[in-house]
């Protein structure tokens, strides 16, 4: 809505231009019996073109028969029959797509190579191959010989390499679109974008009106400004994501952009540090749209911006503008319809001069340092449809905010975005009922209290409502069941209570996402209830779901996200049908509840990864087999029993995607199978507190991505596995409380250089503490207590730099995120102040060394006292002699110190 005028202007330009191109052209169909058939040589050229193209979805199936003018994508001249337009564009590619959608797009895209036979279409005016997948092929140089071309679109088609300068031979070109694929797509698929070392070839295109080179690498093309400034007819210029350098532009003595209306230089931040808006931009008075997002521009917003009196769209978001207030010059741009200053460092209050923006349709001032009270604009900004003010510090109640918009604004406002604003007060005492045109309202992460007003349920246009993370109490009004357009309802993390019945969903046929977790609500539905909606996401954590598992979930054919964790109902048996139903999910969380039963199989059909958390329940029996697309699974704190061989080794030929495996605190037994080499993506393994026996298998050494290995509290035996020296990414190793023996290998300090946590407590290790441990500069926790170690304490422990630092919380290695939702947090049993406890959320604060209950001898090295970051040091129950080092007082962070049960003498320092 906010972009309406700009889009209309662009559409009008293309409509007029296309009209001029297709003059005397027509799509020949079977009904046009008087239209001349296509030229035979051109038909043969198209046949050759088809033969060289890869067409997995058979899009060119109509390319048969003698009359090529009847083929899809072909437009011929009405009189001569010459092919004048070739349109083979693929389906549009959106910015955010799932793996499944991206893969489906590739299956409908043309690929292969472009045949030189295309040169036989000598009257071709219009060529569109956009949104296809040519897999990194170069743009053919011979396209520069299609002398009649006026329109060339190769955008998002997967071409790679340097843009051929022969394109500059197309002197009739009016439109050139070579923009590449967005960066987010490149992360998942090997799509390619071109590059250019200079743009001199563009100077031969005097008729060029539309130029889009976005996502083309241009950081070596220092002439980009000089060249584009020389194009006399340019109306639209898009150079987003090109790595442009604004610092190295040669001086421009005269600006020729007399016809330029749309300029997009966004996302060129990499090569433009410590710069402000270039002065020449503010001299292009014909501009109607200017996009300078994410360029690391700093300082004040240029006062010269007021010269751009034709501007209707201005986007300066996510820069580092840091003026004490929004500059008055912006308020003088009376034609502005879209103003986006999101994500800067603007401070101060909003001036009442904002009333001068009488044409404004969309206003985004979110994520700045603005504060104070909002000016009353309800009777001036009558065209305002969207207002985004989130992430500031408005010192007002929600009622005062809504009052400032009452008037013609409240009559037409569609989007109200004010989350994370420190707003307070009661929404049920506001005039929210006056905003009858609202489609989206975002008030989450504030301190709004009281009941959710029933009048909000009467705003029939609402599509998305987010009131989560506030202090609402009472129940959800039944009037929400009448919101026939509602697609998303987010009310989580409040103090809501009461019963939710079928009436709350009576007419919500379009509901896609419902997040109401962390409330005290009870679901009371008929066992045979069939919902009117088809959800994509459902989160009902902490609810009372009733005595039975919700059968109505079976009707949700599009559900991909399901969280019914921490429910307040005892002993619910999960029915067998649910595990087949879970095949459609990408996230499943049933944790911290009282679910029971056996899990037959956790499958996954499709291409998206599955994340599963079933921890802290009463599931029993053997572990279920899992399919290859599961990337994270947590089955800890249940009653699973038996071997895990079938779980790990049932498909040895299949490379699996699993990254996180947590099976701690179950009744699993037997030996650890030696088939870990198939799980090459594993980063987290937690098998603690089970009944495993035997050796640690050597195949664990093939897990080169492993970050965390927890095998504590089992019956494992044998020596420290040599193969673990291959796990060079290992950060946390906990193999305490087993029956392991042998010496502690020195290669831990030479090979596992990222180690932050080592716990070997309660085993039978003997020999000396290796000096190589001193090379572990990141080591934060070392626990080798209750072993048979002997010899002296290494004097070089002072080289462990993290233990010597008093800096705050460490985050690296203590938590990991997998997929879109799951997070694994390191957890460790530590003994401090004589008490054993599990540490997790604050583990990053802990720096501890426990060498107690061994046979260590000699004196306490004075060098240890330089470990000023330690909060716990335990050397008790050894054979240490002489006195405590005098420098012990330098260890000012110590909370726990134990030297008891040694042979120490002398005075206490």
TrEMBL record:
Keywords, comma-separated and alphabetical: Cell membrane, Glycoprotein, Leucine-rich repeat, Membrane, Receptor, Repeat, Signal, Transmembrane, Transmembrane helix
Signal peptide: 1-20
Entry GO terms, CC: plasma membrane
Coiled coil: none
Domain Leucine-rich repeat-containing N-terminal plant-type: 40-76
Membrane topology classification: Single-pass type I membrane protein
Subcellular localization(s) per the UniProt record: Cell membrane
A Pfam family assignment: LRR_1
Major subcellular location class: membrane
Superkingdom per UniProt: Eukaryota
InterPro entries in the record: Leu-rich_rpt, Leu-rich_rpt_typical-subtyp, LRR_dom_sf, LRR_N_plant-typ, RLP23-like
Entry's family note: Belongs to the RLP family.
PANTHER family found in the cross-reference section: LRR RECEPTOR-LIKE KINASE, LRR RECEPTOR-LIKE SERINE_THREONINE-PROTEIN KINASE FLS2
Descriptive protein name: Leucine-rich repeat-containing N-terminal plant-type domain-containing protein
